[in-house]
Design a protein that fits this description.
Helix content is about 35%, strand content about 15%. The chain is α+β, with helices and mostly antiparallel strands.
């Protein structure tokens, strides 16, 4: 099998841009090498687009997300959602 530590390190390396935001990660494993694909859903894309400060999910709970998005930003999110 594969060492869990190596897979965990690969996931951390692949999700650097999404620090503090919950995203779905697809692991593709071919001949003992894990390939990490981040598959953000609409919620995480919107939170990222709001450019909120980093937060520790273990400490801060029940956060209210507020802010404005331009129509261009919204269409950008929609384009990323489309396969």
């Amino acid at each position: 099998g594969m060492s869990p530590k190596k897979v965990g390190d690969d996931i951390v390396k692949g999700t650097n841009a999404w620090k503090g935001i919950r995203v779905t990660v697809r692991l593709t494993i071919q001949n003992r090498a894990a390939k990490v694909d981040v598959e953000p859903n609409a919620t995480s894309l919107i939170i990222k687009q709001l450019k909120e400060p980093l937060r520790d999910r273990k400490k801060t709970k029940n956060i209210k997300h507020s802010g404005n998005l331009t129509k261009a930003q919204l269409f950008d999110i929609v384009r990323q959602m489309r396969p």
